[in-house]
Amino acid sequence: MYDVIIIGGGPAGLASALTLGRALKTTLVIDNDNPRNKVTEHSHAFLTQDGVTPSTLRQNAQHDVDKYADVERLNDTVIDIKKIEQYFEVQTLNSTFKARKIMICTGLKQQLPHIDGIEACYGKSVFYCPWCDGYELKDQSLIVSVPSEHITFMAKLVSNWVSDIIMNPSDDNHLTQEDIKYLQNKNIQLINGKIKRFEHDNGQLSRVIFEDGKTITRSAGLVGIELDSHFEFLTSLNLKRADDDSIDIDEFGETSVKGVFVAGESSTIRPSQLIDAASSGNNIAKFVAMQIIDEDDIE
């Protein structure tokens, strides 16, 4: 039986494993090598790793983790987790494992907008996170397509990097007068209507085609994406959800099921940067290790 099984081998999971390995806790990291940022060409704002590819960052992290004898890594897919008395049983496609504690570090599932051409462009010239890619977009002509409620916020944020911006509400909701006035005062163009297609050259955006036939020239884009943490393997645990549909956790990252912790993006329904996920994993892993230490001290 392991002290801890970590589901997910991204920055949150590997940072957790590093901390637990250094705390002498037997740890198994299970990951199926399908990260959400797999299409991203470069990672940014991670100290000592700025500009490297996500795969390189992951390999570097794996190298750090593999130095610790108490940590193992497994390439597999978790399909179920059950609590059995004082331990957990984790079932994968190929085997079954037991652990005293569980850490969910799987990040979030995402759904891109239904726009022709977006999959080819996403991660190359179309992105979702200004903090992640805004610096690289600073000289581009930008289309920003997000839900109406985020129009003013995104216009304000993106204007920090880009002056040539066209805003597009991605839903059917009407903008408020305050939204419209803000865009007018900032001389930011607004185009309503659904986007039909991103025309591109090997992923490099060139034109945006709307359903009504309108066509504009743009060299890059930011889009809103749908995110959730409803993974099928969590069903048996029946974890309590917060009002915003994120997994409900306390200040230590522990869920409504004692012994199950969540770190990284899995603890929210908001995307974050890699360094944020790694920091979360490091912090929550300390609480996990301390819970084990407390239990062993009582025994």
UniProtKB/TrEMBL annotation:
The protein's GO terms of the molecular function aspect are: oxidoreductase activity
Membrane-traversing stretches: none
Q: Which intervals hold domain FAD/NAD(P)-binding?
A: 2-279
Q: Mind telling me which Gene3D superfamilies this protein's record contains?
A: FAD/NAD(P)-binding domain
Question: By its UniProt entry, which InterPro entries does this protein fall under?
Answer: FAD/NAD-bd_sf, FAD/NAD-binding_dom, Ferredoxin-NADP_redctase_2
What does the record give as cofactor? FAD
Q: Does the keyword Oxidoreductase apply?
A: yes
Q: Which Pfam families match?
A: Pyr_redox_2 (PF07992)
Q: Which domain of life is it from?
A: Bacteria
Keyword vocabulary terms for this entry: Flavoprotein, Oxidoreductase
Q: How does it assemble?
A: Homodimer.
Specify the protein name.
Thioredoxin reductase
Per the UniProt record, the lineage of the source organism begins with: Bacteria, Bacillati, Bacillota, Bacilli, Bacillales
